[in-house]
Specification:
The chain has 7 helices and no strands. It has 158 residues and is mainly α. The radius of gyration is 25 Å and the shape is elongated. The relative contact order is 0.10.
């Protein structure tokens, strides 16, 4: 009789461990990693551009701009010179993209590049890779900096 109870307790213990592993696996599948796909972002951006921009840029142009923006981010992170924040899709990125495109013989106006990068940022937000931009006040507070009482963001304006 004692052996039967021991075997039953062992069975319950193993079943409990098995259920714990199944539960953990289910949790992991619910919180899957966000994967940035170049082709997916290209599709998203091309579809989201204004009609005026779509008439000025071919898909290959949009791809070129996106690829150079990715190269900007890679170089910024590889340089390990991260004293300041690296803003992918920001002004420095747009200048980098424009210069690289000019080096290849493709001259795009700044507003065209800015729109492509803005739509790519929308894509990144949509897939959950980044959150919406923080205001200057929120950023200062997050880094424990003194916040100027006169510092107002567009979110603060009524």
């Amino acid at each position: 009789m004692g052996a039967a109870i021991f075997a039953f307790a062992l069975f319950l213990l193993l079943a409990g461990i098995g259920l714990a592993f199944l539960w953990q696996g289910k949790l992991e599948s619910e919180f899957s990693a966000v994967i940035y796909g170049v082709e997916d972002s290209l599709e998203w951006v091309a579809a989201a551009l204004t009609p005026e921009t779509r008439t000025q840029l071919k898909r290959s142009d949009v791809r070129r701009i996106l690829e150079h923006d990715i190269r900007f981010a890679q170089r910024a992170f590889e340089s390990h010179d991260l004293d300041g924040a690296v803003v992918v899709g920001g002004y420095d990125s747009a200048v980098f993209v424009q210069e690289r495109c000019l080096d290849q013989g493709y001259g795009y106006d700044g507003p065209l590049i800015e729109e492509v990068l803005a739509r790519r940022a929308d894509y990144m937000i949509a897939i959950g890779a980044v959150g919406p931009a923080a205001s200057a006040k929120e950023t200062a507070e997050a880094y424990g900096m003194d916040v100027d009482p006169d510092l107002r963001s567009s979110d603060d304006v009524e």
